[in-house]
Specification:
The chain has 224 residues and is of the alpha/beta class. Helices cover 46% and strands 12% of the residues.
């Protein structure tokens, strides 16, 4: 561990358990170290002047707005990173999606190669998370889980099998050569078909091995 707490991103298809894992990590940090992590979303609109371009590029993607959307994402992430860095001396930061999702979205909705999108983003972003936890589950299974969630969580133009399968292909391409995408940090692939407790345990163990979890304080005054 350095003098900064870790910045961790959680990625995966809708329904793979990102929110469940984020909540589990939050509770472990809070219970074991009396530290409440800061949780952020991939797009926070911390640069409000770019919000319109983000909404336009996300929900009405076209060749005409692709570059504006990409620039807006860089601006928003830059603003988010300022918040992240200001917090990392006091607590961990956990992002529900970060960079991998952007690469997949641009590939599927804007027809851009993951490596080209990464290059454009990397020119404007100086750092990324220490680790990206990728929850892996077949698209059919993740879609079934997503449909069972409460609320209006399913999007007709996105939560369809051919789109989710295409997203999964980008995830596999990128995580298969993480050295080409260093702003992802260390990529940790997790089997999302396991129970939530097992996924949380695997994630926590991986973060320990990466030196991102401090050791528990020894019991003082304990009699032998």
């Amino acid at each position: 561990m350095t003098n900064r707490y870790p910045f961790i991103a959680i990625e995966g298809l809708d329904g793979t358990g990102k929110t469940t894992l984020r909540k589990g990590l939050f509770q472990l940090w809070q219970c074991l170290f009396d530290t409440a992590p800061l949780c952020v979303l991939t797009t926070n609109f911390l640069s409000p002047e770019y919000a319109g371009q983000i909404v336009e590029g996300k929900y009405r993607p076209s060749a005409a707005n692709r570059q504006a959307y990409l620039s807006a994402i860089v601006a928003d992430k830059t603003a988010t990173l300022q918040l992240v860095e200001s917090q990392r001396r006091a607590r961990p930061v956990i992002a529900d999606r970060w960079l991998l999702s952007e690469l997949a979205f641009f590939a599927v909705k804007h027809g851009a190669r993951a490596e080209d999108t990464y290059k454009a983003l990397a020119e404007g972003l100086m750092e990324g998370p220490d680790a990206t936890l990728v929850l892996e589950l077949p698209a059919t299974d993740s879609m079934l889980r997503a449909k069972d969630r409460a609320g209006d969580a399913v999007r007709a133009d996105w939560d369809v099998h051919h789109v989710q399968s295409a997203v999964q292909e980008v995830y596999a391409e990128v995580t298969g050569s993480p050295q080409s995408f260093p702003l992802l940090g260390t990529v940790v692939r997790l089997d999302a078909s396991a129970t939530p407790a097992q996924v949380l345990g695997s994630a926590w163990t991986a973060l320990e091995h990466l030196g991102l979890i401090p050791g528990l304080p020894a019991d003082e005054g304990k009699e032998s």
